[in-house]
């Protein structure tokens, strides 16, 4: 579209990397929140870059749409943010946590 047909005062949406609006805040662990804040601080300290401004906007959007949720164990079931160590019949141990899960069928992390 020609620039002649655009309104300069209408904000331009980010490209395909922009996050859609969230209907509710999503859970995050304290460690996850700290990692996102640290990444934003690093981007801010590094100065301008090709990816910096866009990633910073995404991080700010994420940080304003999350709520810290403590790890939970309800009725003996593992919940959000918990760390688990599973010991197989062969004595091998597999630990998983915030970003990983162990499937019951294969014992492999996903």
Helix content: 25-40%
Q: Please report which band the strand proportion falls in: under 5%, 5-15%, 15-25%, 25-35%, 35-45% or over 45%.
A: 15-25%
pLDDT averaged residue by residue: 75
The H-and-E topology, N to C, reads as EHHEEEEE
Sequence stretches where pLDDT stays below 50 over 5 or more residues? none
Report on the biggest sheet: 2 strands, parallel
Class derived from helix and strand content? alpha+beta
Which strand order spans the largest sheet, edge to edge or round the barrel? 1-2
Total number of helices: 2
* Number of structural units classed as domains: 2
Radius of gyration: 20 Å
Shape: elongated
- Give me the count of strands: 6
Would you write up a description of this structure?
- It is a single chain.
- By secondary structure, the protein is an alpha+beta fold.
- The protein folds into two domains: 14-69, no CATH class; 72-110, no CATH class.
- The chain is 26% helix and 16% strand.
- The protein has helices spanning 30-46, 52-63, and strands spanning 26-28, 66-68, 73-74, 77-78, 84-87, 93-96.
- It has a two-stranded parallel ribbon with strand order 1-2.
- Strand 3 and strand 4 (77-78) form a beta hairpin.
- Helix 1 (30-46) packs antiparallel against helix 2 (52-63).
- The longest helix has 17 residues, at 30-46.
Briefly say what this structure is:
The chain has 110 residues and is an alpha+beta fold. Helix content is 26%, strand content 16%. It has helices at residues 30-46, 52-63, and strands at residues 26-28, 66-68, 73-74, 77-78, 84-87, 93-96.
């Amino acid at each position: 579209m020609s620039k002649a047909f655009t309104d300069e005062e209408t904000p331009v949406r980010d490209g395909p990397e922009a996050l859609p609006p969230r209907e509710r805040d999503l859970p995050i662990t304290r460690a996850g929140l700290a990692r996102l804040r640290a990444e934003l601080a690093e981007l801010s300290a590094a100065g301008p870059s090709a990816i910096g401004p866009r990633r910073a906007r995404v991080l700010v959007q994420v940080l304003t749409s999350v709520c810290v949720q403590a790890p939970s164990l309800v009725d003996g079931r593992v919940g959000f943010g918990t760390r688990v160590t599973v010991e197989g019949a062969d004595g091998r141990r597999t630990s998983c946590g915030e970003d990983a899960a162990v499937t019951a069928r294969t014992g492999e992390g996903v």
